[in-house]
C-alpha cells in the first residue's frame, strides 16, 4: 500500500487533537529578546556554538523553510535564517504567538515552569490558555527543594571554615536542619501532588550529576532519631551546598547524596499520591554528563518504586533503544518522544521514532514539543512530530507489518489518549 492511499492515517496524523505532555512557558512581550531565537534548535552553550554552529545543521535548514512558509518569506535564500529573525521581530509579539500556537492543534499543554529565567522573563502558565488549550503544571522537584532549603541555610552561615571538620555542635545543627528540610519537602510535595492544577513532578537529576541514582538500601535513607547515623553522607552534601551559598550567594543543589535523597522523597510522595514523575533523559545542554544521561542507569531505581510512574523524556536521545527496553519490561515506565523535534534532523527524527516503536508498547508512548521561550518551538515541535508519525507508520504499513486501522490507533494514543490516561486529565478530543 502506498502512502498516497493512506487518507485516514494522514488525516489523523496531521489533525488529531494533541496533548503536549511536556513544555515550558513562553517569554513575555517585554522579554521577547532575552533568549536567542536559536534556542529553538539547540541547547548549545556559548555564542559560537549556538548562533553559528547550530544554524549550520540540517535541523536548522529544515526549520527555516517551514517557518518561512508561515512568515511569508521567500525560501531558498542563503541568509534565510537572518531574514526570519528580522521578520518575526517586526511582528507584534501577541500576534506572533497567535500565528504559531493556534496552528498546532494542541488541546492541552502540561507546563514545567521551573526552568531558570521563567519567573523573570516568561508568562504565567495560566496565560497560555488564551490559545484555546487547557494548561496544567508540572512541578520541578529540585527547584522546590532549593526554595525550601534557602531560608534554612541562613542560620548556618556562622559554621566553621570548611578546612576543619564541623564541631559536634555544628554537626548537630546541620542534622537538625536536614530533618526539618526533608519534613518540609515531604509536606510541600504532597500538597503539590494533591493540587488539581498539578499533574506531575519533574526531575533534572540528569543535570545535577546524572541518572546513576542509588537505591534506598544503598543510601540507607532515614531521618528518624534512632537512625541519624545513616545521614553522614547527606550532612557532608549539605555542607557543600552551604559553602557554595557562602561563596556565591546562590543555592544550586548539585552535590551528590542530598540530590539522591531529594529524588527518593519525590518518588515516594508521587507513588503515594498517584502522580507520575518525569525525568530528563538524554538530549540536553553541556551541563549534562552525557555518559550518565542514559535511562539504563535508572533500572534499579525503577525497581525500587514499582508503584510510581516514571516518564522518560526526550526519547532519551541518543539512548532511545535503552528507554524502549525499560518500557517493555516495567509496567511503571513510559516514554516521551519530544525535543527531538526540531533539534534533530528529519531523518534522525524518523530513526528515533522507529527505535521507540521497536520495543516500546504503543500504549506507553507520549508526545511533547518541549516548547520553550519562543512560539515557533511549539509549532515546529508539532508539525515535525506529526510528519514523523505519518512517515514512519506508513512505511510499516507498506511493509505489511501493520494495518492502517492499527496505525491510526497508535497515532491517537501517542498524541492524546496515553497522556490523558497517565495524567488523569479527564478529557476527550475536541471535534
TrEMBL record:
<feature type="domain" description="Amidohydrolase-related">
    <location>
        <begin position="266"/>
        <end position="424"/>
    </location>
</feature>
<protein>
    <recommendedName>
        <fullName>Amidohydrolase-related domain-containing protein</fullName>
    </recommendedName>
</protein>
<dbReference type="InterPro" id="IPR032466">
    <property type="entry name" value="Metal_Hydrolase"/>
</dbReference>
<dbReference type="Pfam" id="PF04909">
    <property type="entry name" value="Amidohydro_2"/>
</dbReference>
<dbReference type="GO" id="GO:0016787">
    <property type="term" value="F:hydrolase activity"/>
</dbReference>
<dbReference type="InterPro" id="IPR006680">
    <property type="entry name" value="Amidohydro-rel"/>
</dbReference>
